[in-house]
Design a protein that fits this description.
This protein is an alpha/beta fold. The protein is built from ten helices and nine strands.
């Protein structure tokens, strides 16, 4: 078979190291029997190990050339290869119950992929795979770290995050300009946050939009001008200093004093 030519427009960097691919497949070892959706399989370097491990696998690929290649390489998978955009895929129509997500994710849309995983968090017990190292560090970061941000808080509210290992540039064709990393997100026991979850997202995003400012400044647009809660010590902190539970407390503190829009 003729190899697929990586397309810059799709951000394609094909993993070539089989040992790395096998290690990524092993991140779902505890989920045998749970359907798996692989995003962006490319030429199937990870796909082959997921099939070898016996997973109930579907794959979604945007690149038509890659779809043709996958159909030829994995004929038994042909009726489970979806040509399309994961971000537009109606997951509720694809799976009736829980399913896992895995992939060597396109770096240019990796954050969007994670936000979609978050939308379906109650049906995704595990999401794992390859990200740009900087993004992986951001997702796994603890409070107080420079990398800690919106993705860190929103994902850690519902998932336990493990930074598993770093992958060098020379493991890809073509080599990316950055290092990569493999992480695993495992759904935690939090069914719902102890606050208004919609407001929680607004508070987190608004706070980090001006991450260097104290919360009394970055969140002032959300709070009634007459409110006295702004004197609470938490408003002297910066968003990167707050844990998930502190953001939950902050959301509850703000809720009765929202500015009228």
């Amino acid at each position: 078979m003729i190899p697929v030519k990586p397309k810059k427009s799709l951000g394609q960097h094909f993993l070539t190291d089989l040992d790395v691919a096998a290690r990524i497949a092993c991140t779902l070892e505890a989920y045998k029997g749970v359907p798996v959706l692989e995003i962006g399989p490319g030429m199937g370097v990870l796909t082959q190990f997921l099939l070898k491990d016996g997973h109930d696998l579907k794959v979604i690929e945007l690149d038509r050339e890659s779809v043709t290649y996958l159909n030829a390489r994995f004929p038994s998978l042909s009726d489970r290869i979806i040509e399309g955009d994961f971000l537009k895929l109606p997951l509720e129509e694809l799976y009736e119950g829980p399913f896992c997500v895995i992939g060597n994710y396109p770096y240019n849309i990796s954050s969007q992929i994670l936000f979609k995983v978050l939308e379906h968090k109650d049906r995704i017990p595990c999401c794992s795979g390859m990200f740009q190292k900087e993004v992986a560090e951001r997702i796994a970061s603890a409070p107080g770290k420079k990398a800690y941000g919106i993705l860190s808080v929103l994902l850690q509210a519902y998932f336990d995050i493990e930074y598993l290992f770093t992958v060098d540039e020379n493991k890809f064709d073509p080599p990316p300009a950055v290092k990569s990393a493999v992480i695993r997100l495992t759904r935690n026991t939090t069914k719902r946050l102890d606050c208004d979850e919609k407001l929680f997202k607004v508070v987190v995003k608004t706070g980090f939009n001006q991450r260097r400012k104290m919360l009394r400044n970055s969140l002032k647009s959300l709070i009634d001008n007459e409110s006295s809660i702004i004197s609470d010590p938490i408003f002297t902190m910066r968003p990167e200093q707050l844990s998930v539970s502190q953001f939950t407390d902050l959301t509850n503190l703000i809720a009765p004093f929202l500015a009228k829009t």
